[in-house]
Amino acid sequence: MAARSSPEIEIVMPVDVKICGITDAMHAHAAAMHDAKWLGFVFFPPSPRNLKITEAYKLAQALPEGPKRVGVFVDADDELLKSAVQTLSLDAVQLHGNETPEDAARIKAVLGVRIIKAISVSDETDLAKADAYADIVDRILFDAKPPKDALLPGGNAVAFPWHILKGKKLPYKWMLAGGLTAKNVVQAIKESGATALDVSSGVEIEPGKKASYLIQAFLSAVKTAK
Question: Ramachandran region of residue 19, left (φ > 0), alpha (ψ -120 to 50) or beta?
Answer without folding.
Answer: beta
